[in-house]
Amino acid sequence: MTGRAATREEKLAAIALWVLAFVALWSTEAAVGFTRDESVYFAAAEGYASWFRLLVRAPAQAFTDDAIVRAWDYNHEHPVLMKTLFGLSHLLFHDGLGLRSATAFRLPAFAMAALVPALCFLLGSALYGRTAGWFAALSFLLVPRQYFNAELACFDMPVAAMWLLVMYCFWRALEDTRWGVLCGVAFGLAIATKHNALFLPFVLTPFALWRAWTASEGIPEARVRLVRFVGLFASVAVLYGLLFVFLGGGAAFQKKFLLLSPHTLFFVGLAVGCVWLLRDLRPVSLPVTRALVPVAAMAVLGPVLFYLHWPYLWHAPVDRTAWYLAFHATHNHYAWFYLGTLMRGPPFPLTYVVVKTALTVPTSLFAPMVTGFIALVGRALLSLSARTRDWVRMPTATDALVGVNAVTSILVISHPQVPHFGGVKHWFPSMPFLGILAGAAVARGCFALWELLKTRRPSLPSFAVTVPVFALLLVPALLGLVRVFPYGTAAYSELAGGLPGAATLGMQRQFWSSHVTGVLPWINEHAKPGARVYLHEVNGFSFRDYQRNGMLRTDVRAVNSPFDADIVAYQYHQEFREHEFLTWQAFGTRTPVTGLYLDETPQVIVYQRPE
């Protein structure tokens, strides 16, 4: 389990992959509609950008809590790293340089999403060879739902990129102590991106402790210092627990958490203790030190960076952080259509995440993912027995690290009490690691085929096998992506039978309202001047964004009911069927005038009030 540095050629390839992904996303984003969440983030980003204007104009006023709350209170259920970048990008590229408004917001999201192929290549190449790295990198954005989400100024793809970056820094830290500090910085930025990243220490810390334990074998001085390091964390945890009990529970514990309080003193003690213990450990055993630095860095730098990145926390960090955590711990359950069942609340099906992944990831990519993961698990099981251990290569700790990261997000969302909605975006952090395992499986297959063919043609180059295999697996995914673009939330795989098959199975047709772009040209052409338009599932912010980005006529007016509308665009949702029935009642007709149909499957249906 060592983290080797990338070669010069690998670094150049990673940069090229980042540029390719960024350019591809930028060049195609104009066709992608605005999801409900995205337009909310647009509005929040503009508010945050206004605070930076105030900061330049009146710094003293900007740092007051009143000014901060005015600018940062909106959408404070999410951290603000990405929304801040969206706002600053809009300030620079739209307000300053005249770039299209939505594009200016989305540029930071493209930059973050483009990190995933680059990091997949670096990590995959280092672990399983460049063939595996190239496959993992090239395949990631060919998954239609992943490409769609990469186009959006949202958080799901950025947090997947940050999760991958934290893991890469953690792995590199095993060879270079500086990467351990970077792991802490990356973790702070990850939790500043989205709350998913809070699970990362629970994933990485066991590997760090195992690495430190094995590296300290035969070095009693190092083993003693390792125990002290673990004891420091355990002691601080016990002290916090006793303080919680002594103060009488959560409300009092939260109220007493001040700058000058035992709570803060314990954290400062943890930080100082980590630095002192690691400096004492370094001369005794550098490998043990390198294993523990990421743990200390995440524990200390993570909370500090999270606090610093979010002005809304500056004057009331404990209360506002507690509200944020409580919001996500008790998140709403949204209705969701799955295999003919309208799921409105828990318990949700245990197999949901696996089935949904199988039905949405192109089959030519899903198959090697399954093959790569099963091969890893199979090697681990066979290596447990002395009778079968010689049959396989025993998985390394790094193999286990990749495997655990591949399933963590999937297992979290699979819990029957966790809200199940949003398609596949909530377990995106697992997908790069599944892609790396798929790359490993493809690389092994290519090598075995090449070895077989070389018995007949000894001069056959390896790329003569790799290129056709890559084409066989990647081209179907590319065709599927092009076929469904820009309506990514409707993408279903060959296992589902495509969109018609998924509709027959009783799966969610689409969501997030972005498909309305398919009927906006008709509305622009046929709506009378000043027409009242009800775009079902499109919120007021999205309506405004369609107009200010030139996608919807500025004279039409948004209304909130079919009874007030001249035109209704109904987004086909099983849980909202009554909206279509209300439209029939309001308009006195059941005949649509147009619609968006993908492979003859209705997505958006448009009705016009008869004159």
UniProtKB/TrEMBL annotation:
Pfam families: PMT_2. It is found in: Cell membrane. Signal peptide: none annotated. One of its GO terms (molecular function) is pentosyltransferase activity. The chain crosses the membrane at residues 109-128, 148-170, 182-209, 229-250, 257-279, 291-310, 322-339, 359-382, 394-413, 433-453, 465-485. Its main location: membrane. Residues 78-212 form the Glycosyltransferase RgtA/B/C/D-like domain. It is a multi-pass membrane protein. GO terms for cellular component: plasma membrane. It comes from the Bacteria. Keywords: Cell membrane, Glycosyltransferase, Membrane, Transferase, Transmembrane, Transmembrane helix. GO terms for biological process: lipopolysaccharide biosynthetic process. InterPro entries: LipidA_mod_glycosyltrf_83 (IPR050297), RgtA/B/C-like (IPR038731). This is Phospholipid carrier-dependent glycosyltransferase. It comes from Corallococcus llansteffanensis.
